[in-house]
Amino acid sequence: MNFPELIQSVFDDTLGPGQSLSLFRPELTLCATMIAILLARMILPRWKTSGFYLVLLGLTLALAFVFPWRWFAEGALPGQEIFTGLLAADRFSVALRGLLLLFTLLFVTFTQIAGRWAPEDGAEFFVLLLGAVLGMCLMVSANHVIVVLLGMEMASLPCYVLAGWQRDRRVSSEAALKYAVFGAAAAGILLFGMSLLAGALGSVHLPTMGRRLAELLQAGVDPAQLTALILGGLMVTVGVAFKLAAFPFHFWIPDVFEGATAEVAAFISVASKAAALGLLVRLAGAFVGVPDARQFLVVLVSLLAAVTCTFGNLAAYGQNNLKRLLAYSTIAHAGYMMMPVAAMIALAGGQGSPDAPLSEAQKAVAALLVYLGIYLFMNLAAFAGVAFMRNVAHSEDLRDYAGLVHSSPGFTVCMAIVMFSLLGIPPLSGFTAKWTIFLALVSAKLWTLLAIGVLNTVLSLFYYLRVVKVMTLDAPPADRAAPRIPLTSAAGAYFAMLTVPVVALFFLWGGLSRWADAAAQALFFTTFGP
Amino acid sequence: MKDSHTIWILATLLGSLGLWLMLPRGGRRGRLAGAALAVVALGLAASQTPRLGTWTAEGIFAALALVTVVAAAAAVTCRNPVYCAIWFGLTLLGTAGLFLLVGAQFLAAATVVVYAGAILVTFLFVLMLAQPEGKAAYDRASWEAMLSAVTGVVLIGVLSITVGGALTAPPPEAAPSAAAVQAGVLRPQHVAALGTELFGRHLIAIQIAGTLLLTALVGAAVIIAQGKNTKTDSINSKELKTDEE
Predict the structure, then answer these.
(1) Domain around B103
(2) Considering CB atoms only, which of B174, B200, B240 is closest to A10?
């Protein structure tokens, strides 16, 4: 192939019938916004707040590009590969990218209200944030080993810097360093595992890898090669589990959350988890067609989910720093969110098509999307509450929340709603989220996992309730002024605005569920072998 | 098959013990014994690697492999970080030679240019800039010597057994056909083919990598700007009670 042919092939793929570029517009917009912020800062040094408005504009545009509602109409965007198979464009990736961008939009507003970022740092903060979001968008549409790795690196790298943003605090630098060292090790293990898998299967394209595995297992595989395959699979799991903060690889989360600001913790807790789950669905989805691989993956993911969930809930008991408590709550929720993935793997035997009625496995993915959609609001609200309290009371210690109901009743009510929703009490959307994933477990007949999930909900009751109890029943400390966050202030209004969907999504969950179904329907499960 | 496994496991055990004895742990005891054990482990491992056929190929491979492995062991066991970095450079040169031996010219050149050329020099710069007044105590001893020696050697043992087993008995479906090998890596212009693949099919990955580097650059700029604007940067640093540990 000579140079003109190469150029021609690139043109054909991006602008020709492949239409790769037009489906890639959200990511391109994010890229352009990053560069625009850097340039605006250079050219217009006096326009200090330019970063924020540019980010708002860029994110809104990207969201408009990713979210044409027509794609959720019947049969539209059935799922296709773009950029010569490196990325997958289907409704699942559209839905997850939409969630990520919506979250980022809310998050940027939140940082503007809560964080007092210095203006000259604002630009870098936003560039790093957009870089991370870009990486996460790539993670959820990855269809190729290279994109998996690049997306994960791109999502993690800015987070390392963001975790150490308060450079004059030792805890913050420690958090950044711990995160970076463990993250680099996890990425190395992931890469090692991927090269083993790619070497054993002779491909780096995820669907082809799944097909090769099926062929290899049917033809009979010798023990040494099987060991290499299992080792590779386990190493890839380590890399993904680190991003998910699943049990043996969760240890960085509490330290990082304690060291980072509540804002950054919110970002890592929601966006990073959502992207990692999307990636998990993609990776598992490539191999679920192979019966042996399916059995292996079900056990692996169920075990991780059960242990992660239980550990997170038990470890949250002793925490007095609210950010650490929410860190363990994040671990527990990662466990809950892995449960529908286990159900999806267990159910994915039958094949689906974009037009066929929803298969059970696709319903499990829809349950995951419902959970993520609700989790976005309630976890962002929880961290927003912590950040606003920090700005007023200069503390993240649970003791300083004592008697908050007397000084800021509106704020306390909203915080209580968020805590009850995280717990999953009926008239709140957290219940809807748990209900849908438990239904998915029932249809997958994963009874043990279901029992563990229900037991964990009971376990989590006590520490979420403890926060509410401290805020309402405990006497306020007498030695200092009570913190006041009126709902009429910007912070209070934003917090109240976030609690509205936490309540409303319980009553309006039909819409959310239809949206999730449409998104999951595009996921295409093919089956190989008997 | 069974014998080979036993020998590999023995080599792994001896290797981890030897490496542990050689790592700098304060005293000087046992380093020679460790070196002797490591040599025995290396010999055992070498006895289990498949032969290459001709004597020249065998000799060149043995020389390169020996340089690589010995330099790698020296890189982790030296006390002086500068020596460690230089030994590491030798390991990379040995690896590049091994790549060349199996016909991967591009990888060999990239290893020399990127690792031995750029990254190693950066290491040396950092070491010289970071320690203007002599070496710190924490640089002279190895942390978690036992754990790291065992982990490293066990990883090598498992991979050697697995990959070695897969290499000696390649399943017919997984191995590429002779024609494919001839058209692929054995083609004289396979670097050009690699370029076509990278900038044709995987163009978007290259673009993504570029964006990743841009983000990393901004991150590095943020870290370097440390302390320049602490006055405006104190988000809540002086206010948080939890800071006063």
Answers:
(1) 3-176
(2) B200
